Fold these 2 entries.
Entry 1:
Amino acid sequence: MNIRRWVITLVMLLLSVAGIFGYKESLNLARAQQGQGMPEPSATVVAELAQTVSYQANTKVSGEVQAYKQLELNNELAGKISKLNLISGSRVEAGDLLLELDHSEESARVIGLKARLELNRHTYKRYLRLQKITKSVTSWWIRPKPKLRSHNLSWRY
């Protein structure tokens, strides 16, 4: 009984597919017959006569030009920009100063290092003077002792 249901379902499915295929084929056949009865569509053609004209090498035009390519600038040092020396879209040449970075921290650090250098120079000079004084005092304080010769001396009491 179960096989009978499967066979009926399969036959119904095959009939449905065959019906859809047949209907689609009849539509295609009708469209082909309808196209045979109609004339081919005509195309409009416009003809122009060729004329010779003089060639101009240059043409002057007024307008606005936008750059095709862009340039992205990157700096090796990070910091705040204190001065921008160019206007957007202006022409720049090689070696032009485009912007200035704020260098107040670096300037303060340089001033501090110069002060430390000056202090170290004074300390060095002081050490040299102390060394000279120490040598002179040491040479006065520690004099070479005369060598004593041992003699056979007899002491009597």
Entry 2:
Amino acid sequence: MGMVSPDVITLTGADRQILEGIARSGSAEHRQVVRARIVLAAADRRSNAGIARELGVVEDTVRKWRRRFCDEGMPGLKDRPRSGRPRVFTATTVAEIKALACELPARTVNPLESWRRCYATSVLTCVADGARACAI
């Protein structure tokens, strides 16, 4: 048996029921299933090494989710916001472009030739310019 973690997890009945449901789910995201299984195994006083071996993850992963659950409870199992480059286009703009691209040219306000020359050029120009001054 491996070293016992200082992060001891004691589950309430409700938390255990929720985690067991996620762990058995066929439709939950894989990462959520793995996190639920880690916490359930940790609550059964299993070692980090044993949990990692059983679930096919590294010990650091087990340690991370065990500690986050100890510190934050169920909300700690959610993904945190990631850093990175901000989006160039808003979700609304992306949806509008996708909707337009999926429409038949005859049903749009602009005929196909007009769209090809004018709108497509402006979209490509926006992308090339980094979308700083585009009005799509």
